[in-house]
Design a protein that fits this description.
- This protein is mainly β and 104 residues long.
- It has a single domain, classed as Rieske Iron-sulfur Protein (3-layer Sandwich).
- The strands form three sheets. Strands 2-3-4-9 form a four-stranded antiparallel sheet, with no helix packed on it. A four-stranded antiparallel sheet has the order 5-6-7-8, with no helix packed on it. Strands 1-11-10 form a three-stranded antiparallel sheet, with no helix packed on it.
- FE2/S2 (inorganic) cluster binds next to loops.
Length: 104
């Protein structure tokens, strides 16, 4: 069974915002899409750009380095130059805590 760890509070990012956190030796990008939270690896699959510093429009984040676009709900590429999806993590909200499953 997946173990969920708290990575942020729901008040840390408003709808339409992205950020990133360091957790368990990795960087994870967090997104608030109209009150629903999503988590991806913070490294773009093109050349490692920080997706948590990208621009979020609806459920799509644009990498700040060369403009690849990813669906934050799934990690799938929706705009080049990246070709491989970025890892997406399951997210739960408990009270004001955003919790992410690191494995499983
Ligand atoms: S590193 Fe993200 S588009 Fe190049």
């Amino acid at each position: 069974m997946a173990e969920y760890v708290t990575v942020a509070r729901t008040t840390d990012l408003k709808p339409g915002q992205a950020t990133w956190v360091g957790i368990a030796g990795r960087q994870m990008a967090l997104f608030n899409v109209e009150g629903t939270f999503y988590a991806l690896d913070n490294a773009c699959t093109h050349l490692g750009g920080p997706l948590g510093e990208g621009r979020l429009q609806e459920a799509v984040v644009t990498c700040p380095w060369h403009g690849s676009r990813f669906d934050v709900r799934t990690g799938q590429v929706v705009g080049l130059p990246a070709r491989k999806p970025v890892r997406a993590y399951p997210v739960q909200v408990e009270g004001h805590e955003i919790r992410v499953a690191l494995e499983g």
